[in-house]
Amino acid sequence: MISFDYKNLLHSTKIRTGIEPDKLELMQEAVQDAHAEIQKDRQQDILGFYDLPDQNVDHITDYINSLGDRFDTMVVLGIGGSALGNKALYSALRTPSQLRRKVLVYDNVDPVFLDEILDEITLSKTLFNVITKSGTTAETMASYMIIADRLRRTFPDDYTERIVVTTDKEKGFLRKLVNDSGYASFIVPDNVGGRFSVLSDVGLVSSAFAGIDIKALLKGAAEMRQRCAEADLMSNPAYLNGLLHYIYMKQGKNISVMMPYANSLYDFADWYRQLWAESLGKRKDVKGRDIFVGQTPVKALGSTDQHSQVQLYVEGPNDKVFTFLKVESFAVDYVIPNLHPDREEVNYLGGKKLSQLLNAEALATSYALTSAGRPNCTITFPQIDEHHLGEFIMMYMIQTVFTGKLLNINPLDQPGVEAGKNATYMLMGKKGYENYLEDLKID
Ligand code: PA5
Fold first, then answer.
1. What's this model's pTM, rounded to 2 decimal places?
2. Distance of CA 62 to CAs 57, 187, 197, Å?
3. CB of 205 shorter than 6 A to ligand 1
4. 339 CA → ligand 1 middle, Å
5. pLDDT tens, residue by residue, 40-83
6. Ligand 1 mean position to 386 CA, how many Å?
7. Catalytic: 421?
């Protein structure tokens, strides 16, 4: 089970602006209200991500088994919530699980990046997974068209078998295309938004292709859902962490830094960045009043960024809340040899493991921040595996929705993203968007 250590978010002689336990008591009613709203949303089938751990995944495993050894790589074409979870799972698990096959994610329209991916793969051994809930996003459609064209020219007889599509079950251009072309396809459920979709077909197909145990992932998520089922703060880490972050936001701590002390969890900090930013960064409350809320998520990597960011974190503006991700047992480890036993500059390291040094650095950074009065908490993974990642994913999705309820905003929409998408359509000449600048009131 992953653990959540929040003592350095509470008031102490060091964290003088820390949260008093009384304050948590005072918030009980707001917590109950937010919990009741979540239950109501669940009954109305709005928060589909809660149910994903219960799904039957045979349709995914059957499809992956049907591929045999035909492909050695999957390239995901998608962006935002249609990409970040795939990337995070693959990079977290590729080493400990010694995954069978490679997953690459093309989540931009940078031509050089595309060129690099095409250089890295063997086209004949690559399956392309086009993921887009709306079925229309410009970036994903552009990369789809380049790839589909190339595949059609290179493999005219069977190019449709080299593309798989994950999109809405009925709506959107891509669903139409699936119906016309015969591409294999998967579904983004109606009631699951992009950034909450990693445990749906969106994240599971590429994971199963790579060899990730998706049932273990869902089991971990189910266990965290159970742990977060009641409004009792002391047994519900998602609500507790959400509430603590909410109180800090109200105190003006507008930045949330997630700092994994493990390279393999760095892409999870990216996944978190989208979830927290896009869900909570809102202009309007649920009644349509301007409130301009949100907390800017920042990612940093321990220990690398101790030599880049931590100076600012310890001595700069006290406007941040920190979350460290720590791993107790790494999949591989190295012992540092005592190469210079008579030299005090380095002999203290001799005989220690690299993981020991890394975890000491994590604790040391937490000490440094605490003694400078900077609130911080730590989530510890006993090891990085499917089960613990499932727990982590579910905890953060629940925490995000819960915090949105406390903030009185809709954590599921993203009107700010839509504005950019529409402006892109206008700039690229899409029919119907000719006058979009007038809507934006830009000359
Ligand atoms: O979380 C979200 O809803 C967004 O970030 C989307 O995932 C992103 O905009 C991509 O949209 P789509 O999956 O429709 O291509």
1. 0.96
2. 9, 15, 21
3. no
4. 52
5. 999 999 999 999 999 999 999 999 999 999 999 999 999 999 99
6. 24
7. yes
